[in-house]
Amino acid sequence: MAAAPEFLHQFASAQTAKNGFGRKKVLVTIFQRGAVDGLNMIVPHGDPAYYNLRRGIAVPQPNKAEGAVNLDGYFGLHPTMKPLEQFWLSKKLAVIHSSGSPDNTRSHFDAQDYMESGTPGYKGTRDGWLNRVLQISSAKGDSPFRAVALTPQLPRSLYGRAPSVAMTNLADFNIKAGLYTQDLKGGFEGVWEQDTKDALGETGKETFEAVNFLKKANPA
User: Fold this and answer.
1) CA spacing 20 to 30 A to 188: which of 61, 94, 138, 182?
2) Into how many domains does the chain fold?
3) Predicted structure pTM score
4) Which of residues 63, 89, 115 is at a domain's end?
5) What is the DSSP string of 69-134?
6) Does residue 96 form part of some domain?
7) Mean pLDDT of all residues in the chain?
8) Tens of pLDDT along 189-212?
9) Domain containing residue 48
10) Angle, CA 107 vertex, CA 104 and CA 112 arms, to 5°
11) What confidence score (pLDDT) does residue 139 get?
């Protein structure tokens, strides 16, 4: 959570203190939507085939100019990832290499969807894998900010019944309509307060709960 805005740190701390659970673990997931070259990120510098097959783009071996950061004598980090070396040395970092979807689709968009739904080869899954985790581990009184995506729109992995919020910054997380902001907001909230059971109704209620939570914590 080190890269998250400060107000999210405050809300997480306040929630755990309120519930008396002590410090909770936080799961941070980064989905590189444009893909990533795994062999040049975690470099198999101990494998001669890597250099034979990637003569023009291979990352040099450790101790060479712009070379890989050695991890275990066989694998290494891309040199721009050297800040992560300290976590490897302190046994706080693990690398899972040669992993991915068992579905061999050649469609970038299908592969992306399968990774976020967690059901490779099947397009009918409505919720995302992260939301399913939230559903089976939810508790009464959970914070509206139990799951936060720092993106303009909610990612596919967080689709589902469990509450989650998407935002890019605190200032934009509200309804803005000039002089009519309060009237418009009140009207919308009245609609969502009705006994609406569909997905849109639940999403509307969750959004206003999150907005009100933010306003109480940070009135400015």
Assistant:
1) 138
2) 2
3) 0.64
4) 89
5) EESSSS-EE-GGGGGGHHHHHTT------S---S-----HHHHHHHHHHT-TT-----S-HHHHHH
6) no
7) 77
8) 444 454 455 444 455 555 556 666
9) 38-89
10) 85
11) 75
